[in-house]
Amino acid sequence: MVMFRLHPRANAAVPAAPVLLCIVVLYVTSDYVAGDLDGYWTAATAKAVSALIFIAPVTAACAAWEAGRLRRAKVGDGTPTRNGWQIAAASLAPVMLLGFLALATALAVVRLQMESAPGWPDVRIIAAACVILCAHVALGYAVGMWLPAVAAVPVVLVGDYLWNVYPPALEPLWLRHLTQPAFGCCSNASAVYPGAVTAPALVAVGLAALAVAAAAVCRRTPRRGSLPGSVPYWGAALAVVAATVTTSAGVRLVDGLGPDAIEARPVSDLVCADPRGTRVCVWPEHASRLTETARTVSTAVERLRRVGVSPPEVVTESGQRPGTGQWTVTVRQDPAFTDQDLVTSLTSDLTVILVNSPHGDGRTHCPADPATAAQRAFDSQDQLGVWLSVRAGRSQQEARDSTDPRIWAPVGRVLGTSAASQETWFQDTLVQARCMPR
Amino acid sequence: MSVEFATCTYQYRRGPVVLDRLSFAFPPGRTVLLGPNGAGKTTLLALAASALKAHSGTVSFAGLDPAVRSQLREYRRQVGWMPQHITPAPGMTCREQVAYAGWLKGMSRREAWDGALAALDRVGLARKADQQASSLSGGQLRRVGVAQTLVHSSRLVLMDEPTAGLDPAQRGTFRKVVEELAGTADVVVSTHQTEDLSEVYDHVVVLSDGVVRFTGTVEEFYALAPQDTASGRVADGAYTAVLGGGEAW
Amino acid sequence: MTWWIHTRRLALLTLVTAGFWAAAFTLGNSRLPLPQLGGATSADVPFILFAPLAPAIALNACYGTPTPIERTALRRVAALDSLLAVAVVAATAAVAAPVMAGWLSGTDPFAAESAVRNLALYTGLALIGRAALGNHASTVIPTLLALVVSVFGYGPEQTAHWWAWPAALPSDPLSWAGSAALLSIGLYQTARGDFPRR
Fold it and tell me: What are the CB-based long-range contacts (under 8 Å, 24+) for A78-81?
């Protein structure tokens, strides 16, 4: 049995499709999204579904237009043999298809911008995005039933767009996690906070319930027969209760969150190698560079040991519990990220670890004036970082070119002295760097 | 003297040509316009009412051309039009809706308000004068449409399917209205109702595919019916004969 | 005239327009940080970019689809519709004038001036849309313009592109001239409805 026939040529989704798909492609290729993907699917999925800020309003507006067409055709005044769900589905199926196509396009374009992407897109985030999309389409349909198309389409288009883009500008910060799944997710060292995926989906379910109830109580909504007198009102009350419950549950899930929906990425994800004593671990999306990273890190660790820095047990990409026994390093898929960058990231993190590590000589050498102490501490930390990077294997030329001449001058001088003088300078500078007033 | 079309061509946007260089004049008196669906009847009446403008050619009535801006006002004063679709204005009563039509045709507020009640009375809707127009049935709404045409005095009255959806009693009332109009105005009525043509109308015009297939008196029209046509179906027989036995209604 | 006012739902239009004035003069200077695809990475889009859509939409919603008998009217109903649009813009200008002249403190002239200019622009586009696309789709044009400007309208340094008139500074003469021109075209197109159309 044919449930219904689609007539996509006449559907609003058809003229809207090229425009929406172009905007989605422009958006996901912009620096706003494509700037920091680096092969991590969870982050890439979150960035791709952030295109909902355009997809949801456009599809909701198409749904409002389709509802307007049913209104104008007075389908509700007829005696349809199909029920309201089927009639709405016939109008909204192309709109939903457009929404899913736009989401798939966003994911595909994001994938094209990654060097390699082990694993798969995050299904939880995609599922939440689909729920949100369906809710917005239902909302557009309901508004289109209540208002004439001349008002419904612009109201839905602008209102839905602001609903999606405005919460990040509002306090409290967790408000943004009610409208967009996995907002602000993620750097490689973070995983998505599951509550921030569930919460917007729950709020969307509440919205959808309100939309269905609003459409049901509208006398223009086409349906088979009329509902018994009190049913629409009981349905509306139920929808309000459902929306309250789902929104409250959503708020409870995210009300402790900051601007980004993230939590620490499990260390079990790491891929490790054990060359010459120091264990080196990277995230799976950087596994192709593990050998190169392990070689560069081991060389750097050995060179630093010679100037008095104790080698760590592990050098890892995970930012959890860094310390003198566990150094951190940053790796990127981008081929332009060289072993020189690896050494720089390693020593930059190491400098912070060394400065913050417990020490016994107190603050006896620090200037009394806090401002002077802070300035000297900053300068010392910068100098230390540059010196460590050169000692770990970075070329002097590159270090000089990328460093403020004021910072480079003492480092350049000390690099020309004996190993013993350099070790003394290292210890003295480390003491100065620890003078940061607390 | 009646409305006259000279080499008129009309085509809807992205649609087919409805009228192609039509030259024709409605005879004076009461004329019924017959034709199959899509023949161009509504377009012809809308052109005559100055709701539409021909792509080429002219329409004129009493020496007035609605395409000439200086003559449009006087043309519209003399021509009344009942469109095919009567839209109830939201929140308006029947009397207000009819009075609004009179005001649109240049009547003062007072004249229109008084005239509206009289016009509603002529179509048998005086009792519904203060009822919301949107609450009326399809047939009643059509009678409001007729009243809108009667509220101001025109020298040419054009009505597009005024009897569609009317019960036999109301069709009788409508016949009376047309008879009353005959003394003061030329009347052109587009319809699919062919019974009692001879009692109401003087002339018959048959339009098909934008071409006038027949124009003449009712008697001349009836004469086209085959000899063996049953007495109650003479008009149908004549109509079928005019269209060459092809598409009828 | 009262019947015409009744058919044009003037009460609703007045309510929406008054609400727009209240919102424009209290929230007009608020800004929304929105993502940008037109050169800037994000821009603080003023609320007044969107607010004038409300009366422009309400105006077209209140016009509704004209009843067929208006197409053969002696009275210039379409000209009245044009006048109604002029009245909404003129009333907004009159309300904004004291702020624009600096007579009222506490309200930013930027919001007042942008409100008048953007209302003229959106109303003009809505009227052009009504003539070109019909009443149902008429308001899509100004709405799309507002959204396109909010997404693509800002270049580096967060300055509006030359074509992004609703986001332009009130001192930009091109945005005023363009808005006035589009309003004039819209009014002319609307008023032409009094004459037979093809």
Answer: A78/A222, A80/A222, A80/A223, A80/A224, A81/A224
What pLDDT score does C95 carry?
A: 93
Quote the tokens at residue C72. Answer: 């053969």
How many Å apart are CA B29 and CA B38, to the nearest integer?
Answer: 25
Does C1 or C154 have the greater pLDDT score?
A: C154
Could A153 and C137 be called an inter-chain contact, meaning their C-beta atoms sit closer than 8 Å?
yes
- The torsion angles phi and psi of B7, rounded to 5 degrees, stand at 45, 50
Chain C residues with CB inside 8 Å of A169's CB?
32-33
pLDDT above 60 (res B17):
yes
Class of domain B4-85+156-242: alpha beta
Question: Mapping DSSP to helix (H, G, I), strand (E, B) and coil, where does residue A280 land?
Answer: strand
Chain C hits for B101, Cβ within 8 Å: 69
Neighbours of chain C (3+ CB pairs under 8 A): A, B
Instruction: Calculate how close chain C gets to B172, using CA atoms only, in Å.
Output: 25
For residue A106, the model assigns a pLDDT of 96
From CA C177, how far away is CA A160, in angstroms rounded? 31
Amino acid at B190: S
Q: How far apart are CA A359 and CA C36, in angstroms?
A: 48
Residues of C in Cβ contact (< 8 Å) with B79: 72
User: DSSP string spanning A331-351?
Assistant: --SSTTS-HHHHHHHHHHHHH
Q: Do chains B and A touch, with touching meaning 3 or more CB–CB pairs less than 8 Å apart?
A: no
Q: Which residue would you say has higher pLDDT here, C18 or A168?
A: C18
CA dihedral C185, C187, C192, C198 (to 10 degrees): 60
Q: Where along chain B do its domains lie? A: 4-85+156-242
Average pLDDT of the segment spanning C85-95:
96
Interface of A with C (CB under 8 A): 23, 26-27, 30-32, 53-54, 57, 68, 72, 147-151, 153-155, 157-158, 161-162, 165-166, 168-169
- Domain span at C149: 2-194
The answer to whether A157 contacts C61, with C-beta atoms less than 8 Å apart, is no
Neighbours of A44 (CB within 10 A): 29
pLDDT, one tens digit per residue, over A311-329 is 888 899 887 777 777 888 8
The alpha carbon of residue C137 is apart from the nearest alpha carbon of chain A, in Å, by: 6
Count chain B–chain C contacts defined by CB atoms under 8 A. Answer: 72
Neighbours of A322 (CB within 10 A): 18
Tell me what ipTM this predicted complex has.
0.91
Neighbours of chain A (3+ CB pairs under 8 A): C
Minimal Cβ distance to A26: which of C37, C137, C144: C37
Measured CA distances, C15 to B115, C9, C11, C113, C119 (Å): 34, 10, 6, 21, 16
Please name the residues in contact with B139: beta carbons below 8 A apart, sequence gap of 6 or more: B165, B166, B167, B170
Residue A125 is given by DSSP the state H
Number of domains in chain C: 1
Model confidence at B246, in pLDDT bands (50, 70, 90)?
A: low
Give the other-Cβ count within 10 Å of C2's Cβ: 12
Rounded to whole angstroms, the Cα distance separating B237 from B219 reads 13
- Alpha helix positions (H), A29-74: 31-34, 41-49, 52-72
Q: Could you tell me whether strands A262-264 and A190-192 are parallel, antiparallel, or unpaired per DSSP bridges? A: antiparallel
Distance in angstroms (rounded) separating the CA atoms of residues B37 and C198: 21
State the DSSP code for A277: G
Contact across the interface for A151 and C64, Cβ inside 8 Å: no
- The SS3 call for residue A137 is helix
Task: Tell me if residue C172 falls in helix, strand or coil.
Answer: coil
Chain A and chain C share a number of CB contacts under 8 A equal to 68
Domain boundaries, chain A: 8-265, 268-433
Helix (H, G, I), strand (E, B) or coil at A311: coil
